[in-house]
Amino acid sequence: MAHIDIHDTHLNNGLRVIICPDRSAPVVNVTVMYRVGSHDEHTGKTGLAHLFEHLMFDNAAPESEKQYDVYCTKAGGSNNAYTTFDYTSYHIDLPSHQAELGYWLEAERMRSFRITDHALQTQRSVVVEEINQNVFNQPYGIWRKAQQAIAYDARSSYSWDVYGSADDVSAVSMDDARGFFERYYHPSNAVLCVSGDVDVSHAIELAQRHFGSITDEKTEIHRTVFKDEYRRYGTHQIVEDAVPMTAVYVSVHLPGFLQSELLDAEITSTILGSGRSSVLYRSLVSEKRIASSVGAFIDRRAHSTLLTMYAYASEEETTAETLVSAIYEAVKGFVLTDEKRAAAVNRLRTGLAAELQKVNGVSDTVAWCTLFWNDPSYANTMLDRYSAVGLEPLQNILEHCADPSKTVRLDVVPKSA
After folding, report:
1. How many DSSP H helices and E strands does the chain contain?
2. Full domain range(s) for residue 93
3. Where are the alpha helices (DSSP H) in 17-154?
4. Cα–Cα distance between 366 and 3 in angstroms, integer?
5. Is 195 helix (H, G, I), strand (E, B) or coil?
6. How many structural domains does the chain have?
7. pLDDT tens for residues 208-255?
8. What is the pLDDT of residues 39-80, one digit of tens each?
9. What DSSP character marks residue 341?
10. Residues in Cβ contact with 344 at an 8 Å cutoff, skipping those fewer than 6 apart
11. Backbone angles phi, psi at 132, to 5 degrees
């Protein structure tokens, strides 16, 4: 994979600007990533970070209200955004001759708070409908919300999912929204990353032109504190849902990405649950035939991560107890070898290399490395770092995965007749 060419600078208002030129195709990506997510929320005010992502598509000057998509589409581009527990990212892909449009649109978002009552009312309704559709009216959609609540103490803002509560979202006031903007949506709490067909000096000049005049409040952000005691172990909950078969989700606590690179966790979850040769697939699907679908993945958080193994029953008669016992048995009986480690590493390296072939993948990865690791060049070392992970840290995680006293278990079962 080609080495990412990285140029790092700061504007006087504190905005970190990273330019990653790649002249191989006439496209440009403009990404702005803010260090704010659902972990920055408080009880009774949940879902605000995700709602705010929606609101920011309306946060333009009055004469251009609701025009983000129109501007992008007319210029032959596309734009989107996403919210996580710890950060929110906005990205625009454009033909390179339209690159300045991306700067202007993102600067408009950041410049000042311009949300109207109508926009707030509309987006509250949109997000509540999204919660209903993806969580409550989707088969098995409830599991993630339920999992957070049993994995973390209620005092922790990791104890709710990124969507938050529909009631809380419905109650967000204009003062709540304005306060959120002023606290987090300013230059020194963000990274601007521009990747693709750009000239470096011109790209920096455009950043200065569009973002340089945005003032920064310079107020210290009081980050939500996460304490180790907020992690809960050995918990178990059964949730009834309108589902055809039983499903189980077994999770283990791991460090957050600020304390660990989590490469060992990614490799372990790949060994456990990615593809037909994975531990869970071979045991529960191929051999025992008790599951129709299995997998494992990590949920990255800055201060605390969960590795989750899951299995969906293949027949109505299969109980949650049968599935969970089979998961523990498969993990305990698995013999880790260097060959299996290498196969998982190759799969992960291939996936990351493919992501870094795309300008938006470069921007997203480099912005994240800058925002949390203060090191954009870290993106160039990630492929090699996977290969450097040995067997011992993987074995330690596997042992945790096979220990019920260290796991968090959620069963989603068909509603009783």
Report:
1. 15, 11
2. 7-211
3. 48-55, 68-74, 99-111, 117-131, 143-151
4. 12
5. strand
6. 2
7. 999 999 999 777 888 999 999 999 999 999 999 999 999 999 999 999
8. 999 999 999 999 999 999 887 655 555 577 788 889 999 999
9. H
10. 267, 268, 270, 271, 274
11. -60, -45
Reading the block at residue 78, the tokens are 């596309």
pLDDT single digits (tens) 338-381: 999 999 999 999 999 999 999 999 999 999 999 999 999 999 99
pLDDT, tens digit, 9 for 90 and up, residues 8-44: 999 999 999 999 999 999 999 999 999 999 999 999 9
Domain co-membership, 200 together with 305: no
Any idea what the CATH number is for the domain that residue 113 is in? 3.30.830.10
Q: Is the dihedral of CA 222, 224, 227, 228 positive or negative?
A: negative
* CB-facing half-sphere around the CA of 359: CA atoms within 13 A: 28
Query: Do residues 100 and 247 share a domain?
Result: no
Distance between CA 70 and CA 73 in Å, rounded? 5
d(CA 184, CA 37): 10
One domain, residues 347 and 242: yes
